[in-house]
Amino acid sequence: MRIDVVSIFPDYLAGLRLSLIGKAIDQGLLGLSVHDLRDFTFDRHNTVDDSPYGGGAGMVMKAEPWALALDHIRQAGEPAPADTSGSLGAGPAKPILIVPSPAGEVFDQRIAEELSAAEHLVFACGRYEGIDQRVLDWAREDFEVRPMSIGDYVLNGGEVASMVMIEAVSRLIPGVIGNPESLAEESHEDGLLEYPIYTKPAVWRGHAVPEILLSGNHAAIARWRRDRRLERTAEVRPDLLDDRDDLNARDREVLDRFESSDPAVTE
């Protein structure tokens, strides 16, 4: 996968080169390029913003620097010309242009999984009051444009949101996570939150690990973990359980018992 990020604060993205994502970049599993939007300006102040038409507080990011930056990224990613005579193929997919915005669709694990299969993602990190809308409209010819929100709140810019999405997507690329089985039981992987986890010692400051986890009975442990996932989801994110048709009789029993009793997690 290739990822390009455009920002007026390119150093902000340095954290992506740490830990597992950094190793994936070093191993060639992931290509990451960060571009400074000011490199695509021509005045001596490297101006990227101007006042909004119609009045109002704040400034709006100018269209032309963004167009030049996106043109540069698109052209750098174009494959070498090939002989397509006699071929009716659709050609390569458009790069996906993700624009962090509180007005975008809400990013979640399903979208992360979808994007992890893409060949090329581009993140446009807006600042101030955002990017001139004409940039998004113009870019649709060469990009699949997807404004994206990571939650119902407002940040100073798109860098933090882009880093969140890049990490969530990149860790799903085969080879990035050392043990791929660890992805299977994470929160949100099947619409449930993760079960409580423990490590040594078995008793810590008077708090003991649930005995079932020390039993060696793998079937019973799996059921215990499933029950805790259901209970935790019912307590913290009951909306995730709405309209589910994949719960078996034991699952329903656990949820009914939880709803009719103290929601404290028990063994």
Automatic annotation (TrEMBL):
One of its GO terms (cellular component) is cytosol. Its EC number is 2.1.1.228. Keywords: Cytoplasm, Methyltransferase, S-adenosyl-L-methionine, Transferase, tRNA processing. It is an enzyme of class 2 (transferase). One of its GO terms (biological process) is tRNA N1-guanine methylation. Residues 1-242 form the tRNA methyltransferase TRMD/TRM10-type domain. It is found in: Cytoplasm. Pfam families: tRNA_m1G_MT. It comes from the Bacteria. It catalyses: guanosine(37) in tRNA + S-adenosyl-L-methionine = N(1)-methylguanosine(37) in tRNA + S-adenosyl-L-homocysteine + H(+). S-adenosyl-L-methionine binds at residues 126, 150-155. GO terms for molecular function: tRNA (guanine(37)-N1)-methyltransferase activity. The keyword Methyltransferase applies. Belongs to the RNA methyltransferase TrmD family. Homodimer. HAMAP family: TrmD. Specifically methylates guanosine-37 in various tRNAs. This is tRNA (guanine-N(1)-)-methyltransferase. It comes from Brevibacterium casei.
